[in-house]
């Protein structure tokens, strides 16, 4: 057989393989681009929602003794922002039916508030009409609860503040863990390291267990809407879980959308991005020896001894509040006039 004939045979045999390989490579590239688009859309939507979701819950205590994380999560505004950003990035912002169908692939949205969490998911309604028997709703706020074998009960928050029932003293108490340690019989409050470990673990476990149930129920609703994908709790790293409870925030999942021959299974976490409070400085007035605390933005000329995150911590250490407004007034009286 001549070389020319061999070449023709080679082309006839291997061309289909090259064509199929090229076709699949092109499909894989398109699938990767589409998967990246969905992932980016979800991350952007969650970040936008996290940026607008918080507002101060105790306005009167803005510069006072309360926790820097004592805020109220505006879950409705977060949901609206999330939906708008997702729809815009997916090109369906003007299609209400498509937006509604989009949530068939979003089994759950979690909002982590300061003292509890909400989950937005499909739940059953007693409407009498099978096709309208389920809709997306917010769950009631669910506290980060913990109880021990001694009958004590603790509601954790996103920092060290707790609401607890002291079974030994038969009374409810509240405050920061370090403040309650000396006057409570609750064992967990006695050690800061153990308390922090249990607090984080319990909050994460509560949300994980609830999410697993919600996502499992979502499978029933998805099947009714023609979605064959089996929704499962995604693998979220422990680091991501612990980072998610450092602040008020929002977590969303997207699963089951076909990209090539695979299905999307992704999640994103967005923080409330709380503005941290100004540090509180504890210092000693060199002329009187009296201990005062003041905001770091105020400089009365005291000898700095300690730095605190809240005024309450400084007061607990024996420092008196210094009136910085009087200091500013005194400085203004001593200021020389500006000559033109």
Automatic annotation (TrEMBL):
Transmembrane segments: 6-23
Source species, domain of life: Bacteria
Protein keywords: Membrane, Transmembrane, Transmembrane helix
Listed name of the protein: F0F1-type ATP synthase
């Amino acid at each position: 057989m001549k070389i020319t004939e061999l070449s023709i045979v080679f082309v006839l045999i291997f061309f289909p393989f090259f064509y199929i390989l090229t076709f699949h490579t092109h499909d894989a590239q398109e699938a990767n681009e589409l998967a990246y688009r969905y992932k980016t859309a979800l991350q952007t939507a969650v970040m936008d929602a996290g940026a607008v979701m918080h507002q101060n819950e105790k306005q009167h205590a803005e510069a006072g003794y309360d926790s820097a994380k004592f805020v109220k999560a505006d879950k409705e505004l977060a949901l609206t922002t999330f939906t708008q950003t997702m729809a815009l990035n997916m090109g369906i912002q003007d299609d209400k039916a498509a937006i509604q169908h989009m949530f068939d692939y979003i089994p759950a949205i979690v909002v982590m508030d300061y003292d509890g969490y909400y989950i937005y998911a499909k739940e059953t309604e007693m409407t009498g009409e099978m096709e309208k028997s389920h809709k997306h709703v917010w769950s009631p706020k669910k506290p980060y609860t913990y109880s021990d074998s001694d009958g004590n009960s603790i509601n954790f928050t996103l920092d060290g503040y707790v609401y607890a029932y002291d079974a030994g003293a038969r009374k409810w108490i509240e405050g920061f863990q370090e403040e309650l340690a000396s006057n409570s019989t609750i064992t967990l409050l006695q050690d800061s390291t153990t308390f922090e470990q249990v607090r984080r673990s319990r909050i994460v476990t509560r949300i994980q267990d609830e999410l697993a149930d919600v996502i499992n129920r979502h499978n029933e609703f998805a099947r009714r809407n023609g979605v064959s994908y089996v929704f499962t709790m995604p693998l979220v790293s422990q680091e991501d879980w612990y980072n998610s409870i450092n602040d008020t925030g929002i977590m969303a999942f997207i699963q089951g959308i076909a990209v090539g021959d695979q299905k999307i299974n992704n999640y994103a976490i967005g923080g409330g991005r709380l503005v941290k409070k100004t540090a509180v400085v504890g210092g000693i007035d060199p002329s009187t020896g009296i201990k005062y605390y003041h905001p770091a933005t105020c400089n009365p000329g005291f000898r700095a001894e300690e730095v605190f995150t809240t005024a309450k911590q400084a007061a607990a250490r024996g420092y008196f509040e210094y009136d910085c407004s009087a200091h500013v007034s005194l400085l203004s009286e001593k200021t020389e006039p500006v000559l033109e």
